Amino acid sequence: MTDKDVERTGERVHPVEPWWAGTGTWGAAALILVGGLAAGWVLLGLPGTSDEVAQGYLQAARVIAVGTVIAGCALLGRRRARAGTGRAGAGEVNERESQ
User: Fold this and answer.
1) CB neighbours (10 Å) of residue 31?
2) CB 56 within 8 A of CB 50
3) Can you tell me the distance from the alpha carbon of 71 to that of 65, in angstroms, rounded to the nearest whole number?
4) 0.70 exceeded by the pTM?
5) CB pairs under 8 A, 24+ apart, for 87-93?
6) Three-state DSSP string of the chain
7) Cα 56 from Cα 45, distance rounded (Å)
8) pLDDT, tens digit, for every residue of 37-46?
9) Which residues of 65-85 are buried (b: 16+ CB within 10 A; e: fewer)?
10) What's the CA gap between 27 and 66, in Å, rounded?
11) Mind listing the pLDDT tens digit for each residue in 35-76?
12) CB 70 within 8 A of CB 34
């Protein structure tokens, strides 16, 4: 197939994002809370709990892990944004401390 055979439409293909990609800090906190509630549900053996208890804990741990990663990324991004605004004066502070 040559380049002439391929039709170019000019549209950009946007990659498919995971369901949790746009949740932000509050969404991450909600995921951690839901994961904790799911683990408590499994611990108490409430209705809907599978026969394999380890499977329930694994699923709850996955939700908590995703929430923790999202929260960490959101908080690091916020911290970097704050550090970027104060960059101009950072060199003067480091020079004063070295003297």
Assistant:
1) 22
2) yes
3) 10
4) no
5) none
6) CCCCCCCCCCCCCCCCCCCCCCCHHHHHHHHHHHHHHHHHHHHHCCCCCCCCHHHHHHHHHHHHHHHHHHHHHHHHHHHHHHHHHCCCCHHHHHHHHHC
7) 10
8) 999 999 998 8
9) ebbeebbeebeeeeeeeeeee
10) 11
11) 999 999 999 988 888 888 899 999 999 999 999 999 998 888
12) no
CA dist., res. 34 & res. 68, Å (int):
12
Q: Which residues contact 59 (CB under 8 A, 6 or more apart)?
A: 38
Q: Which long-range contacts (CB under 8 A, 24 or more apart) does 53-62 make?
A: 60/35, 60/36, 61/35, 62/35
Structure tokens at 59: 């699923």
> How far is residue 48's CA from residue 95's CA, in Å, rounded to a whole number?
62
